[in-house]
Give the backbone structure.
Amino acid sequence: MRLIKAFSTYCAVGVTALALTACGQSSSDNEQSADSADASESAQTWQFGLEEIEGSVQHQYAVEFKEMIEEKSGGDVTVELLPYGKWGSSYSALYDAIQGGSIQIGFGSGALGGTVPESQLLSLNFVTPEDERQAAEVLNSDAFLKSDAWQTSFKERGLVPLAELTEGYQVWTANKEIHTPEDIKNLGIRVMDNSLLRSTYRAYGASPITIAYGELYSALQQGQADGNIQPVFAHEEMGFYEVQDYMIFAKQSQFVATLMGNLDWWEGLSDEQRTMVNDVTKTLVDRGYEIQKKFNDERLETIKEGDIQIIELSDDERKAFREMSMPVRDVFVDEVGERGKAALDTLLAETEKVSGGSSDDSSASSESDAGGDDASADDESGSDSAMEDEESMESAESAN
């Protein structure tokens, strides 16, 4: 009887031990599974769409953005770069992808006006500081970038502006010297298919024309266009300087690309992740300037090896063009409304602060009636920058 009882006790202890061991193993396995699940849930891939090819200003900026985000996130975030051609061939395809969320972040520049009309503000002449570094700082200041007018303009279209990348001055080329508006009068100068740019150059007295980017070199060579407007890197990449006699720096505007994100994606990030992105983009304000400066300086040296002559307008010469550009601000406001005016007023106010009050007027509206000026909007305004065929041509323009 005692033997049976002892045996029963032994079995009970053994079963209990086995049960405890089994429970211990199950708990350990569950913890490992939970850790794996947490790691899987925290790991994210952000796709970053570029308007330009590898080796461009946008690409180098994006490379450094990627490196900093991946380091600061401890590997929880991977940034996948999609240079021009990886997402499609027209700007609208990229903008649509960001709006739809299939691409989380990306750049938008001149053609973005078809998606965010207020973004055409960045195409206006003489609204940012003449100094390139100051221009980058003003455009990325909280006063402008985080303003209700600028943020709401994008958010109403399912986007959020995260930073502004300046890519260098928009530079004129021609087969004649240009120092005054009289010199540019009736000049057949090629501009992007953008009604605001056409209004600007009509205000100067020129005759703006639109030519497909891929046909521009031969058009300049054959005299179908008298002049051209591009950032320095584009003049060099496409060889436009080879068929023009003069390159003119009026410092009237810079080529600016907005770094923007999908709004749902942005709002779905944790507070820590949004802070991380803001910290990275603030760091890249100076780096972005340095990247484009080096990029454009090197290409300008290549251009100078040719026969083209470089002209830099004096302050007085720039002032004449600036005064003639003022009515185009009214055209912009008429086209996009009061929110655009608010963004413009903020930009001008910030520009005046850093320029010591010596630059452009801080009021969005000129005293003249824009409706009666050569700068008035024509019937083709509104839809120009959204035209698919031209966007495909212009994709190469920003990519080179």
Remarks:
- Strands lie at 44-49, 77-82, 105-108, 159-174, 189-190, 227-231, 246-249, 254-262, 309-312.
